[in-house]
Amino acid sequence: MESVSIRTGLLVIVALAMFVLIVGCSDDAPTTPDQDEKGTIIIDQTSRTLSGAGWILTGPQNETGSYDTTLTDMPVGVYGLAWNAVSGYLTPSSVPQTLNAAETIIFNGTYTEDSDPPEGFVAIPAGIFMMGSPADEPLRASDETQHQVALTMAFYMLSTEVTNQQYAEMAQWAYDQDPPLVTATTASLRDALDGSTQELLDLDISDWCKISFDGGTFTVDSGKEDHPVAAVTWYGAVAYCEWLSLREGLPRAYDHTTWQCNGNAPYAAIGYRLPTEAEWEYTCRAGTQTPFNTGSCLDAGTEANYNGNYPYTGCPTGSYAGLTVPVGSYPANTFDLYNMHGNVWEWCNDWYGGDYSGDDVTDPVGPSTGSNRMIRGGGLFNYAQSCRSAFRPNNVPSEGGQSVGFRPVRSPL
Fold first, then answer.
1. What is the pTM of this model?
2. For the sheet containing 63-66, what is the strand order?
3. Can you list the domains of the chain with their CATH numbers?
């Protein structure tokens, strides 16, 4: 009997052990938190000496602070960071980021002194916007895939297109330098920087180019002084930016051998330059997401200069001037920029590279090489659909075209 009791006791012990094991493996059993479900957030601020240059971090764990900081053991998830406004400085923008387990994310912020814009320029703040067109926008093109773009640096942009008078005066300045920065005949204005001989302006297209050269002097046709310069090549638009930089004692932004802007880092260029395609659309939209910065329609004659016989879908017809109008005609958008739709196309810095990837991007620069450069905004001959904020045509950089102009930008010093 004793041996039976022992066996029975052993069976009870085994059964209890199995019960404990089963209970311990059940889904309801308490677990120890995974210490790897944390990450690190680095906040890198410039300038670090500004009083009041603090920040607010929001997300799974909220934090506030100032200057450079490293936050460890932060819960994973999506974080956003807002920089404090500091008097006399442009406030940096920031893009939300996702912190994954055992990873590090970095929020960079550069406070740039908010000096007075150059004459005729307006200050454009850094910001985030949706570039491209939504899938249901009428008459959209296939290369307008909508995506989020963050522009982290403020900049200045000329409030109007460059005029015939402005271009002629700067061409004269470049011609009068010793040695000259350009060469000129009655037929053509050409570059002379870095050994370049690219044509800048086709002077013998009398129907479109309103600037003439004779006897060492550039002149503008009477009555066309404040109209936008046309028939200017991409190289001619770049050259104008270079002349502005040189005249003001700033470093040139472009190499006239490779024609790259600041080594393909245009946002960091100090001198004048052409806007990137992203900067152009951002400034054209000025906070809007409609086909035009005026809304769903663009009225020819009161809002823009284009062929009003061909209005946008569902919109009324309008006038058709068939000629350029003075810059500054029609109301400005909320960034105080005029004629972002119509009048003349505007050269951008970027090569054309086909459709966007659709991914969210920060400070995009476009392809590193290509055959055609971007033009934006539509011109006086075009239908309304070509004047849309998202429309993305391109042109051979050595061809000015009948109605192609530009407006320069510059980073704050």
1. 0.78
2. 63-66, 54-58, 77-83, 97-99
3. 38-112 (2.60.40.10), 115-413 (3.90.1580.10)
